[in-house]
Write a structure and sequence with these properties.
By secondary structure, the chain is an alpha+beta fold. It folds into two domains: 148 residues, no CATH class; 137 residues, Dynein light chain 2a, cytoplasmic (Beta-Lactamase, 2-Layer Sandwich), CATH 3.30.450. The strands form three sheets. It has a five-stranded antiparallel sheet, with helices on both faces. A four-stranded antiparallel sheet has the order 3-2-1-4. Strands 5-6 form a two-stranded antiparallel sheet. The chain is globular and about 70 Å long. The termini are far apart.
Length: 303
């Protein structure tokens, strides 16, 4: 039986092998190989993704946390030093959480974004195969993910109906669509922001191009988008009437949450919107949005 299960994984292309491993609830390490070279690793526990890393990623998890402004560089260096001095017997995320530099929920969101980036960088490469090394893994059960959480499901897999929910911080009753817009990597990066709820790329004529929703949130873009457009239109009209020209960035803060809109450019009617709860930091969110606007622009130019 064990040989049969390994046969479903070992030597197959990355996507086929990973989906098979998830299906049979496999536990162990999957080494991603491109010819003789190892280009990545995926760790599974009972078919759940516990960790993934790829040579195609330009930064490690620690650098990622620093870049998005989650942990100050000096404090991060202290924790990394301790991590190495302990012989990596404790995970870096665990040490960050123990020192109070990051909450468990935020750590999970950051891990999700990093793991998702790793999987996305390898999933479409037919030249990568997986080699299976089985065994029970010691992992934190609260820091593992379903494959659908860290890699977009196909339309058939995503057709299950999701119950109505309320987005804390914006008091909107919304529901996730059966066929949501795409989730590009740059929106997954936004998920690591403090208090992140959801993000979307859309045009002022109401066309949603891409969206991403945080774990535990249920958002229907068709319901959220008209409200965003009404607010943006009112702001734009007011800005013109005051002789200030076109609105390029909008920010509103309520008692329980914040909403940010960044226009793609003066010649475009597309925009990036990000919603966060009360933990949002204006400077961090605005910097991150400005950083990814070039990628947003490329996406909108393809429409």
């Amino acid at each position: 039986m064990v040989d049969h299960v390994v046969g479903l994984i070992d030597g197959h292309s990355f996507e086929v092998a990973l989906r098979n491993a998830v299906e049979v609830r496999w536990s162990g390490i999957l080494n991603a190989m491109q010819g003789p070279q190892q280009v990545g690793v995926v760790v599974l526990q009972d078919g759940h993704i516990a960790w993934a890393v790829s040579n195609n990623q330009t930064e490690n998890f620690a650098s990622f946390l620093e870049r998005i402004g989650m942990v100050p560089k000096d404090k991060l260096n202290e924790v990394v030093h301790k991590y190495r001095s302990l012989g990596k017997s404790k995970k870096l995320g665990t040490l960050l959480e123990e020192t109070g530099l990051i909450s468990h929920a935020t750590l999970r969101d950051c891990l999700k974004a990093h793991v998702s980036a790793a999987l996305s960088s390898m999933m479409g490469d037919t030249g990568i195969i997986l080699q299976a090394k089985g065994g029970e893994m010691i992992v934190d059960s609260s820091l593992i993910f379903l494959l659908g959480e860290v890699y977009p499901a196909s339309p058939e897999e995503n057709s299950a109906e999701i119950p109505l929910g309320v987005v804390d911080g914006l008091d909107m009753v919304v529901q996730k669509e059966e066929a949501s817009p795409a989730e590009p990597d740059f929106l997954l990066d936004l998920a690591a922001l403090p208090g992140y709820l959801y993000s979307l790329v859309a045009s002022s004529d109401g066309n949603a191009i891409a969206s991403h929703v945080a774990d535990g949130e249920a958002v229907e873009i068709r319901q959220v988008l008209p409200v965003l457009l009404e607010w943006l239109e009112a702001s734009s009209l007011g800005s013109v009437d005051m002789g200030m020209g076109m609105v390029l960035f909008e920010f509103i803060q309520s008692e329980k949450g914040s909403l940010f809109i960044h226009m793609v450019g003066t010649e475009s009617r597309h925009f990036l919107a990000v919603a966060c709860d009360e933990k949002a930091k204006l400077g961090v969110v605005r910097h991150k949005m400005s950083e990814i606007i070039p990628e947003v622009r490329k996406l909108t130019e393809m429409q």
